[in-house]
Each structure stands twice: as structure tokens, then as C-alpha cells.
Amino acid sequence: MKVTLVIYGLGGGGAERVMSIVANYWVRKGWGVTLIMLVPTTTAPFYQLDPRIKLKSLGVAGESTNKLAAIANTWQRVQVLRQEIIRSKPDIVISFMNSVNVYAILACLRLNIPTIVSEHIYPGRTDANKIWQFIIKRAYRYADLVTVLTHNALPFYPATKGYRSMVMPNPITTPDPVTATTKLLSSPSLIAIGRLHLQKGFDLLLQAFARIQAKYPDWQITILGEGQMRSELEALRAQLKLTDRVHFPGLVSNVRDYLDQADLFVMPSRFEGFPMALCEAMACGLPVLAADCLSGPRDIIEDGINGVLVTTENIDALTAGLEALMSNPAKRQQLAQNAPKILDRFGVEQVMGIWQEAIDRAIARKRR
To answer: N or C: where does the chain have the smaller number of CB atoms within 10 Å of the terminal CB?
Structure first.
């Protein structure tokens, strides 16, 4: 089997993590894997890739200054991508993330190559503008299969409107330790991971922690990740007088080392898709507290069994959830013991079996 994967770039995000996992899995299985990025060759992948993967960087990513430029840039991206797909001679093309999915669908038109497009955010909370949302909805009807992360995303792509869709959860693995003997966190410590973006709700976490920080003077917060809200979050940290209690190390490669030293993982997101950071924290045996947002956490967490769910965008609920676990080491230990069982449902072998089903479906449809 020869598979060509398409993504914008391979930075430190969750979708990029998933693509790295599936690419490495398939190449180790003996498949021919070509991975195409739209970003330039100077942008190295954040996650480790098997050297047998053929990595292609097209250098056609970037912002458009106006609508006319956007049309021209889209045309260029589609044409360059089409030529690279033809050169890779795949049995199937799989793309990740909505705008790239549109490019992949257009690039594969009339090539008779089965195409799977994969959504990695809840479709009801996409960042795409109304024009792109319309284009996405139209283009996805030409895909042989659309995969979504959870069952509550399926209604966005119903069969009655010409879509072929199925649920594809993210495959979960535990990150490898890098510098396990290095002291990274003071104890006790909360940890959160994600882009410094409004979606992730780190502003809510700081406000909730500020309410109880005096009662728990030894606790610290470390938020791993980078993004456009760094300066805003740092200003909020100062305003709340948490400068010595909240830390922003940025984007790090040794996530496992931080997870191994933390006492509680917190995910205060306003919305999600199928949060990889939450899943990997659980796989590493951490107790977790998550906002019960539109997509993902409720599919992953059994409330009170392997984690705790609190009301989304509710600082009172988040504060109460934090205090309930920070004050109760026995409850944290109970959650930690159950958390790694997530691998029984979403481990790599289980999810890659679902990917095989998806590929078989897409190929069978193209042969009709």
C-alpha cells in the first residue's frame, strides 16, 4: 500500500501529532508513505518521523492580502499539490485539517485516487470564515470519506446531503521521556498543555487558581505551549499577582518529563476536537480535570472514574473542581490508577484498525 498524507505543517499541535503517529505506524508496517507539507523546507517537523517516510515541503503556505490574492494562492497551492500527488503515485490520499482538506480534494479531482479528509476540530466551532465554511461544505461532498473525531460531529456531514463520513478518534500513545532525571517542576504542581489561544481557556484557569491560591501556597501551574495570547496571559498573571506561581516555558519537546513530574493535569478549554494532550496525560497515569466542552472530553473521561468533568466556561465550577482535587491526594491517586485504561479504547493498534476500515471503504467506493 502506498499512502500520501497532506497537512499544512508539522508543528507542535495535536493534529500534527496524530499525523506523525499514523505515518510512523504505516511505514513500519511496510507501506510506502509520502508526507506532503505546504510550509517551506526550512520548517522542520516538531515530532520525530521515521526516516523511511518521504517528506516533501511545497513552500506554498502563507497569508493572502486580499480576496483576489487568496484565489490566486489557492489555485497555485492546488496545482503544486496536484503535481506532487501525481509524482507520489499513491493508492490513497489522506489530508488533515479543513483548508488543507479542500486543497487535497481539488488536487485529486479526476485523478481516480481515493481521498479521505480528516477533521481535527469540532465543526461547529471552526475558525474558518463564512466563505471558507461554504467552500468546505461543498468540497467535502467530493471526498470518498470524511472522518470526524466524535459522534456529535457526524451530523455536520450527513449522508442525506451527499457526505460519506465516519468517526475516527485520535490514536493515543505515551510520549517518550527525554531528560527524566532533570527537575522541571516543583511539587505539588498543576500542568496544562496547548496553544496559547482563547480556545484553550488558560485565562479561565488563571482566574480560577487565583481564587484559591492563598489556601494552597505550595501549588504551582505550568502551561506548556506557545501562541498569540502569550502577552495577554502574562499580563493577566501579573494582574492576579501570580507571577511566581504560574510558568510559561513555551513549546517543549520533552512533554513526557513534565507529565511525569506533575500532580494534576487541567484542560479548561472552551471547545476541542479530541484533545491529544488530555489523552496523553491520562496514558501517562496523571489525574485529570477537564471542561466538559462541546467535543471530546465526555468521549474520553468517565466522570469521577478516570477523570473529572466540570462545566465549560464556568470559573466557579473550575475553581471547585481544582480545589476538590488539590485538597484530596487519595482521589487524585484513584483517578491516576484508572486513567491509563484509556489505551484500551484509543491505543494505537485499536485506532489504526479503524483507519484500515476507513481506507478499505474509500478504495471500495472509488472502484464502483
So the answer is: C
Residues 119-149 have pLDDT tens digits of 998 888 777 678 888 899 999 999 999 999 9
- Based on the domain organization, do 197 and 135 belong to the same domain? no
- My answer on whether 224 and 113 are in the same domain is no
CA 125/CA 242 separation, integer angstroms: 31
Same domain, 247 and 359: no
CB 33 within 8 A of CB 52: yes
Domain that holds residue 229: 189-345
CA distance 61 to 51: 24
What is the CA angle 184-185-191, rounded to 5? 115
Q: Assign residue 153 a region: left if phi > 0, alpha if psi is -120 to 50, beta otherwise?
A: alpha
pTM: 0.91
Q: 82-97 b/e with 16+ CB inside 10 Å = b?
A: bebbeebebbbbbbbb
Distance CA 156, CA 138 (A): 12
Phi/psi for 95 (5° steps) reads -120, 155
C-alpha cell at 161: 446531503
Would you call the peptide bond into 329 cis, given omega within 30 degrees of 0 as the criterion? no
pLDDT at 170 over 70: yes
Please give the Cα distance from 281 to 266 (Å, whole number): 10
* pLDDT on residue 17: 94
Q: How far is CA 267 from CA 89, 294, 301, in A?
A: 41, 13, 12
Q: Is residue 263 part of a domain?
A: yes
- Tell me what pLDDT residue 55 has: 95
Q: Write phi, then psi, for 102 (nearest 5 degrees).
A: -65, -45
Same domain, 314 and 338: yes
Q: Per-residue pLDDT tens for 212-228?
A: 999 999 999 999 999 99
**183 in any annotated domain:** no
* pLDDT (average), residues 153-178: 91
